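Figure-free illustration: sequence to structure, shown twice.
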Amino acid sequence: MNTATIDWSCIDTWKISAKNTMWCVIGCSIGDFGTILFFQLSNISFPILGIMTLAIINGLITSIILETFILIRQNFSFTNAVKIATGMSLISMISMEIMMNLTDYLLTGGAILTWWVVPIMLIVGFLTPWPYNYWRLKKFGKACH
């Protein structure tokens, strides 16, 4: 099945993929925003690209931790939960992280959280991987959560 044969009008799949994408945004944002906020509040001199790279890495880590926790609560063993969490779509998470940080960079100059940029970053972070998550769910029947 290729993208041309996928039914892109399935409301139920859009809802499920939106829920999956939202969990991913929450997990990624914890590490990403936490890293940026740490450097912003501590005034530690560090290159913007370095801060943003750390933010992306920490976002991926916190997303995997949150996913593992969710799966354990659904009665998965710790080992299986970690395997599933690390095996979920890195394409989705990485695209989300890159676009959130690019949005921050373009709007603030980078590694700066303000009251107005955070909602924009979250929206962009959600919208970027959502179609991919829909496609993945339709094509493979696989959801992250």
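We now fold a second protein in the same way, so the two outputs can be compared directly.
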Amino acid sequence: MNVALHPQPLNILSICTGGAGLDLGVELAIPSARTVCMVEREGFAVATLASAMEAGLLAPAPIWSDARTFEGRAWRGAVDGLIGGIGFSVEAGLFTASEVGAPHQRERIFIFAVANSDEQGLERHRLSGERSGELFAGSRCRELADASGDHQWRDRQLGQVKAGETGGYGIGLFPPERDRFPEWGRVLAVAPDLEPAFCRVVDGVASRLDVDRVERLRMLGNGVVSLEAAYAVRTLATRLAARGSAGAARLVRMMEID
């Protein structure tokens, strides 16, 4: 007996739909996908979407007129994915905790997007740059972006950590790698109370049961090293600014204020 398999539909919420180009692309790639709600503020685009629905070119779906007032709670549990066409400048990169001195990798992909400014916003930025004597979207920004990352800032931060005492122990920001036994010996010699938190108890059963240990380790394992995230943000913002993003350039200016 032949049985026709009909996959469950993939319900999509479409933000800043425009002419539904992304929607149709997803539906072409995934035949079971369908847009169940659209958010679009441009009148011509909304009229185009409505006409396409009436002509049977698009599946009928409600259209919300403003993303800022769109109530997403009503769609909780009813959609499987979100797509959107956005006026953003975007940079992305793979960063690791080891780049900021940690003894482990903890690879994370960071996607950094800044809204494109309108002409008025660009003009304000241009004038403020002239008053301060520097346009950050110019040569200075390109100079910073020539490197693969904001190494000067990263090295300065790590230098401050090494020069100071973290947590009052003077052992640095990160623990040694797990197989660096001599270094572990030096750490535990000055901070024996860190042993259960850093590397399990080595000489017997713990004196008390830490019922939260599994959940704490799970949270830490899934988490992001803050210094890694800061390094990623500075690096990606600098790259965007070098490409001419006024919004990113403003962020880079803010980052340079100590």
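Summary for the second example: The mean pLDDT is 75.
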